[in-house]
Amino acid sequence: MKAFANAILNLFKKPATIKYPFEPTYKPDDYRGLIVHNPELCIWCRRCEMACPPKAIIFSQALDGKQTYHYNRAVCIYCGECVRACPKPGALIQSGIPASPATKEENINNSWKITVDEALKSRAAYLAQKKKGEATE
User: Fold this and answer.
1) Using DSSP, how many helices (H) and how many strands (E) does the chain show?
2) What are the helix (H) ranges across 1-137?
């Protein structure tokens, strides 16, 4: 009976929740949002990839040696380990921008698996070509 009385009384009380989406949610100054990569400053050492606990960062490599950075916001846990591991200041930063929700159309999990598989294959192909080139010299 006491629970029923509390429920009725709560109907007339001011809500304890925030007024989202009508008022923006408070973000602290040290809010950790999306990871932003700056290819101009990057030295392509792959330390961020090695430091990332959920493996949300991977690099693919073209046969000419050029690397490409790939990041999955849905896998990222926003811990900032990749930013801390980066030896080049500004190459990788954690912005205050929150991640947008993943949509069904993006098929983000399956497409990430395909991206990872292709990146690993590209790196293996690059190493095989490099090894083959060293053997012929």
Assistant:
1) 4, 4
2) 2-10, 47-51, 81-85, 108-136
Q: Rounded to an integer, what distance in angstroms lies between the CA atom of residue 122 and that of residue 21? A: 44
Distance of CA 134 to the CA centre of its chain: 36
Q: What 3-state DSSP class applies to 93?
A: strand
Whether residue 60 contacts residue 20, with contact meaning beta carbons closer than 8 Å, is answered with no
Report d(CA 115, CA 60) in Å as an integer. Answer: 9
Are the beta carbons of 72 and 136 closer than 8 angstroms?
no
Residue 91 exposed, middle or buried by CB count within 10 Å (0-12, 13-18, 19+):
buried
Q: DSSP 3-state assignment of 60?
A: strand
43-49 long-range Cβ contacts below 8 angstroms, 24+ apart: 43/87, 43/88, 43/91, 45/87, 45/88, 47/85, 47/86, 47/87, 48/82, 48/83, 48/85, 48/86, 48/92, 49/82
pLDDT for 18-65, tens place per residue? 777 787 777 788 888 899 999 999 999 999 999 999 999 999 999 999
